[in-house]
């Protein structure tokens, strides 16, 4: 229970820090134009909107089964490596749309697996 409370505190601290620094992030990452703050806040909205999907994907009662634990660990490892791999591939190829193509390819590869796993399979 303590770990859940601590992770919630860290998560909300992250969201609060992101919103506090939104004007700085908009200048650094989006050039500070007219729509830069809107783009920064849209990034926040997407991340905030994904929270319930993550909770549905990894429910608390099934998290410690063998298959769900493997999926959770793989998501943590590869999710942490994706920004570094995306930057490396953009640097090597020069194609700036490559991170989006990587996300689409991973989503297409993972979706059949998620639909056939007993823990995430749609129930009739």
Task: Outline the structure in words.
α2 (22-30) crosses α3 (36-57). This protein has two domains: 1-57; 60-124. It has five helices and no strands. It starts with a helix and ends in an 8-residue tail after the last helix. The protein is 78% helix and 0% strand. The longest helix has 28 residues, at 66-93. It is mainly alpha-helical and 124 residues long. The chain is globular and about 50 Å long.
How are the SSEs ordered, and which strands pair?
Layout: H1 2-20, H2 22-30, H3 36-57, H4 66-93, H5 98-116
Helix pairs in contact: 2-3
Residue fraction in strands: under 5%
The run of helices and strands is: HHHHH
The helicity comes to: over 70%
What global shape is seen? globular
Report on the biggest sheet: none
Number of DSSP strands? 0
- How would you describe the oligomerization state of the chains in this entry? single chain
Structural class: mainly alpha
- Give the termini separation: 33 Å
How many structural domains can be distinguished in the coordinates? Answer: 2
Q: Calculate Rg over CA atoms.
A: 17 Å
Point out poorly predicted stretches.
Answer: none
Q: What is the number of helical segments per DSSP (H or I, 4+ residues)?
A: 5
């Amino acid at each position: 229970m303590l770990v859940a409370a601590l992770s919630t505190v860290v998560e909300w601290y992250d969201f609060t820090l992101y919103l506090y620094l939104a004007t700085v992030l908009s200048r650094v990452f989006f050039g500070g134009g007219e729509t830069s703050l809107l783009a920064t806040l849209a990034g926040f909205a997407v991340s905030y909107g994904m929270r319930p999907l993550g909770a549905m994907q990894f429910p608390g009662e099934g998290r410690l089964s063998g298959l769900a634990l493997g999926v959770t660990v793989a998501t943590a490892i590869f999710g942490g490596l994706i920004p570094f791999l995306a930057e490396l591939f953009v640097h090597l190829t020069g194609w700036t749309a490559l991170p989006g193509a990587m996300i689409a390819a991973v989503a297409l590869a993972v979706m059949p697996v998620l639909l056939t796993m007993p823990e995430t399979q749609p129930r009739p």
